[in-house]
Amino acid sequence: MRIILCGFGVVGQSLAKLLASRADDLYKKYSIKPKVVAVSDSKGYIIDKQGVNLIKTIESKQKFGTITKYHDNNKYDYSSSNLIDNIESDILIETTPSNYEDAEPGMTNIITAMKKKMHVISVNKGPLALAFPSLTEMARHNKIILRFSGTVGGGTPILNYAKNSLYGEKILSFSGILNGTTNYILTKIEHGMTFNSALADARKKGYVEANESLDLDGLDSAAKLVILANWIMGMKVTLSDISINGIRNINQNDIRTASKNHCVLKLISQCNQKLNVGLQEIHHNDPLCVDGTLNAISFTSEHSGTQTIIGHGAGGIETASSIIRDMINIKQNIPNNEI
Amino acid sequence: MRIILCGFGVVGQSLAKLLASRADDLYKKYSIKPKVVAVSDSKGYIIDKQGVNLIKTIESKQKFGTITKYHDNNKYDYSSSNLIDNIESDILIETTPSNYEDAEPGMTNIITAMKKKMHVISVNKGPLALAFPSLTEMARHNKIILRFSGTVGGGTPILNYAKNSLYGEKILSFSGILNGTTNYILTKIEHGMTFNSALADARKKGYVEANESLDLDGLDSAAKLVILANWIMGMKVTLSDISINGIRNINQNDIRTASKNHCVLKLISQCNQKLNVGLQEIHHNDPLCVDGTLNAISFTSEHSGTQTIIGHGAGGIETASSIIRDMINIKQNIPNNEI
User: pLDDT tens digit string along B176-235?
Assistant: First the structure.
């Protein structure tokens, strides 16, 4: 299974470690022999058709801040999408940062790969948030598999649960806490911190994205809502269909009112006919009422009542493990197991 | 899909209603045409090879307390297992009450059906608790499918989640609240009631089994632990391998100590090398700390962290919906979709 890995941040590096440490296990249990033929980061690329040495790649990244020192003479002048065009591979794993303006470079990477009939695993939410319906249509047209388990819930298999564990059931609505950073900040505020000191605390712990608007203004939560609504409810929606309010406008009055009702304010992504992200009062006893960086989502189905899944939504190793699950899923779903 | 339905209590009747109301849906979406050819309750049987009228069966049960008035002249003198021996069917659905002495009549029903190459769906925990390893071996030997989604978590697909949503992952340990009745009683005690008044309250609400020892002494929780340990962890264990302590010995001292630690006492079924059921302190902030009749289970996996699923564990309609999911699963897993 030849792999091009785009992006070598926390998730990319965790994946490299997992692929190195689980090589035997993946081959024995799933007949998967992953061979990473190219890796890109924001500064450049490394290519080795015989298989990139993943440990050496991590060392290069950690020592020099880029993977490009892996080769002594790194003279490739591909752009990211040219790389995908020029290197033969079975799968593209797209882990570049999510961006909700134009979703680049992920969007071009994914489209280029699909046109070349590569299967695609994306943990980058940008392209899916802006163009889920057309990307899944393009995957169908090119007869390739597009997977994205890590985009919602990190290592917690929320998408798979709703799609597969509840087969034969109709999910009527769902609502969830899908962003751990804002949940951490809201938990701190509930315990008495001001918004600014809670934010500073979250920054110090490394929980806040480089572009903090993605967390605070609800964009990350909304992107995950788009993915859930398309994948689980069969809607054809994009980010522009979501009504989005973040957590910046939280005030002491609202917190006190919630508290009187035995509730706390949580940033909820909700699909109940309408799609919206915003602060809601959640009762202390509601299973959805989780603290800290936890994510939680409640699905209400026609015959099985309401069910809640709770887990840590992010983390490099957890998200990398979701990529491995997607690799296994792709392997099991292609005819003749040909890769 | 010909069905023999053994047991016509709350779950059996809910299933009959669902089968009647979802007939179109099951055929259109899953090509399943369920035809119930026989139904038994504790007083007798009804048989109709053309398909039992399910609505009329429910009416008979509700009016006369037994289904046997369905026919004007009900002269069959089969015993339960004879019924299965004498009537051709594709599936046995076993919903008779769980019993942890000898697991009868469920055990004989299931074994008779498997020998006749019927697939089996059991929501009866007794046979699985006493003989999981040999029943699954017998299913393999007879090349039939044995399913039991409703035995743990009712409508909440806990077994399916752990088995399928976490594929490619190794579950290291789990612990859960698997009995809603004792959780209800413990919640009431936590809020100030005595054990006896909490029990009386639970009885009044219809939450307590006819044989209340099954709930209070932890047998129901232990049976579910046996099923999880076999199915998810690949252990080969039965009820006698579980260390079981119920909730009868709860005392005010323990409750106060727990409270000082910001914890509450919960009846936990745990698999962490050893298998045991007993009261444990659970921290208020732990997602496992759910109130009322809710069930919850936390799985800790090698790479994906700890994940918790919460839902209502019982309820006729929820458990019936799990039987429908098992029917769909069997239909999809048999060669040529021949039933």
Answer: 999 999 999 999 999 999 999 999 999 999 898 888 999 999 999 999 999 999 999 999
| E runs forming strands in chain A | 2-6, 35-41, 44-47, 91-94, 119-122, 146-147, 171-177, 243-244, 263-272, 274-283, 294-301, 305-312
Q: How far is CA A257 from CA A188, A254, A289, in A?
A: 17, 5, 16
Q: For residue A3, count other CB atoms closer than 10 A to its CB.
A: 25
Among B311, B306, B275, smallest CA distance to B169 is for B306
- Find the helix or strand (DSSP H, E) in which B109 lies: helix B106-115
User: Tell me, what's the ipTM?
Assistant: 0.88
Question: Which residue out of B125, B224, B266, B331 is catalytically annotated?
Answer: B224
Residue B224 known to be catalytic? yes
Strand extents, DSSP E, chain B? 2-6, 35-41, 44-47, 91-94, 119-122, 146-147, 171-177, 243-244, 263-272, 274-283, 294-301, 305-312
Contacts of B30 in chain A (CB under 8 A): 168
Note the pTM of the prediction, 2 decimals.
0.91
Tokens representing A27 are: 């081959």
Per the CB < 8 A criterion, the answer to whether A205 and A259 are in contact is no
Could you give the domains of chain A? 2-155+317-337 (3.40.50.720), 166-312 (3.30.360.10)
pLDDT single digits (tens) A269-322: 999 989 999 999 999 999 999 999 999 999 999 888 899 999 988 788 889 999
**Does B156 sit within 8 Å of A166, measured CB to CB?**
no
3-state secondary structure (DSSP) of residue A11? helix
Return the residue of A nearest to B149 by Cα: A165
